[in-house]
Amino acid sequence: MATPTQCTCLPDLVSPVLYQPVILVADDEAMNLDIVTMLMQSAGYVVLPACDGQEGLEVSRTYPGRIDLVLSDLEMPRINGTDLCTRLLRERPGIKAIVMSGADVKEVVGLGTPLPFLPKPFSGETLRAKVRAVLAAPASPADPSGS
Q1: pLDDT class of 124 with cuts at 50, 70, 90
Q2: Would you say 46 and 22 are in contact if contact means Cβ atoms under 8 Å apart?
Q3: Which of 68, 81, 117, 120 would be 72's cystine partner, CB 3.0–4.6 Å?
Q4: Which structural domain, as residue segments, surrounds residue 46?
């Protein structure tokens, strides 16, 4: 009598969960916020949009997960981009930050911000390249909050 063929079932293969970096985007210009959000989502990032610095701070404080990067407009009402980034760097160790602005580069340099800067307008590829570079860079030992 022949032995029945045993079914060698494959183990339950669960596709590995790929971590998608989370980016908080804060910009008080709705069109810019929408465009940057779409560009970052199409590049595979999870995006938490905020319409200004205050909302960005609130989103960060209520979001339970890790936030890898804050991408913020420099000039916004209530809390500007530099202050938002400085607070988040203090509150969320390990977060990285980029400020973006249409202001003259000399003006931004005059502010003395140690944060990576992205001048507006920019192309989608320039934005994606800057985000990739900042996320890939080792964490900076310098604390821009001065503490």
Answers
A1: very high
A2: yes
A3: 81
A4: 22-136
